[in-house]
Amino acid sequence: MADLASRISKPDAATADTPAAADKPIQDDTSDLIKNTYEVEVKLGGAQGDSDNPLSTVSSFEELGLKKSIVEGLLALNFKKPSKIQERALPLLLADPPCSMIAQSQSGTGKTAAFVVTALSRVDFSRTTTPQALALAPSRELARQIETVINQIGQFCEGLKVAAAIPGGLERGAAVEANVVVGTPGTVMDLIRRGQLDVSQLKMLVLDEADNMLDQQGLGEQCVRVRGKLPRDIQILLFSATFPEKVMHYAEKFAPNANQLRLRQVELTVRGISQMYMDCPSENEKYDVLCKLYGLMTIGSSVIFVKTRESANEIHRRMEADGHKVSALHGAFDGQQRDALLDDFRNGKSKVLITTNVMARGIDVSSVSMVINYDIPMKGIRDSEPDAETYLHRIGRTGRFGRVGVSISFVYDRKSFTALSDIANHFGIDLIQLSPDDWTETEDKIHRVIKSQRAQADYKPVSIADDKESS
């Protein structure tokens, strides 16, 4: 690696997007999903923690005593048996009396299906206009995805009615007449205040991407306000791929006496993803390196994460001017534009998507084989510290449900290199180094992974910490 000390980082004064979305399956492929070998740690809440009864698990959905219509919906989506997180979570989620849960598991392990099955099991479908389950998400994209999953798993549930409480999703002034409601905290709070959403009969509240929801200024306050309007004995489910300790402390207050399911730290980095880094000669030359990767990006679909909306727009403009077909998506677009752009990416009309952290948790497209961290995710005052959680969510856009996946992070100066090194050390990752000076070798490394059945590299990764010592 070139001498990082000789390089000077130039701060980007543009305003960065706020992380606001999530990573949820529209259709699970359990043929891969159930092969995961990760371990789930369980901590029972309240009086259950003193129980002598062993924690029950299940090996089939039928063992749970689910409604036939729900099992039929799961089978139609190729859910042949529960994933590891579902094996441990569902017996607790479906127990009576209902108990709250804080569940943390990596992307692509079936978290969404776990809380959707629970919601559908709690709902009385004969009461089609009475809201009984509420799911909150940090963005319209994630809310729409959850709505889709509910309708897919519940496709045989006669009487199921789902409403999307998002900006522009409901008729203005009309009462919300549905037994399941999915929305964003701000819109849901507005509907409650206006008397359009009756929450008196709600049995369950779900916060998806709960760490982001509770930790982010504004969203957390809105979630607390919504919670204050709901029945005191409501079952609360908090789900996310990450739960930093400081957020977990707050989550335990938001959902007191909740059962907790967590992955061991070593399991968090998504085994199916080969994680690489590219040492670019300079910040300006990152763009040239990106363009050289374009051919590999379009083998499947790819997501390019940048720091700011301005960067996304500029890279989009330059790449299109250079003849590359790409699209850009960020928070400056209105809701309908974002829906249309994401639909084009899902159906393959667009294969390369440039976006900000606003989509780090919101894109779930099975064809995504590559994620590029054009800018290393940072947080704190003036981007003073690396953001390991956002890194994990970003790379989780690929390698879904055991499929192949590659992530490439660009570094160009001491600050970016140190930040990536800290993230690697945090998760215990050995990052594979790619060289911008040897494109034959670089393309061969990436191509071998993308073309393989699983992202298990057959060459030895180079530890970024080791590489730092030699620089």
How does this structure look, described?
The protein has 471 residues and is of the alpha/beta class. It has 17 helices and 17 strands. The protein folds into two domains: 4-21 and 268-470, P-loop containing nucleotide triphosphate hydrolases (Rossmann fold), CATH 3.40.50.300; 39-263, Rossmann fold (3-Layer(aba) Sandwich), CATH 3.40.50. It has helices at 30-33, 68-76, 84-93, 111-122, 140-153, 185-193, 210-215, 219-229, 245-254, 286-292, 294-297, 309-321, 335-346, 388-395, 414-427, 439-451, 464-470; strands at residues 40-43, 101-104, 133-136, 162-165, 180-183, 204-208, 235-240, 259-263, 273-279, 301-305, 327-329, 352-355, 368-373, 378-379, 385-386, 405-411, 432-434. The chain is globular and about 65 Å long. The N and C termini lie close together (5 Å). Residues 1-37, 49-55 and 454-471 have low confidence and may be disordered.
**Superfamily at the CATH H level of the largest domain?**
P-loop containing nucleotide triphosphate hydrolases
What is the third-level CATH name, the topology of the largest domain?
Rossmann fold
Instruction: Specify the CATH architecture of the largest domain.
Output: 3-Layer(aba) Sandwich
Strand content: 15-25%
Number of domains: 2
Oligomer: single chain
EC number: 3.6.4.13
Family: Belongs to the DEAD box helicase family.
Motif (Q motif): 59-87
Biased composition (Low complexity): 11-24
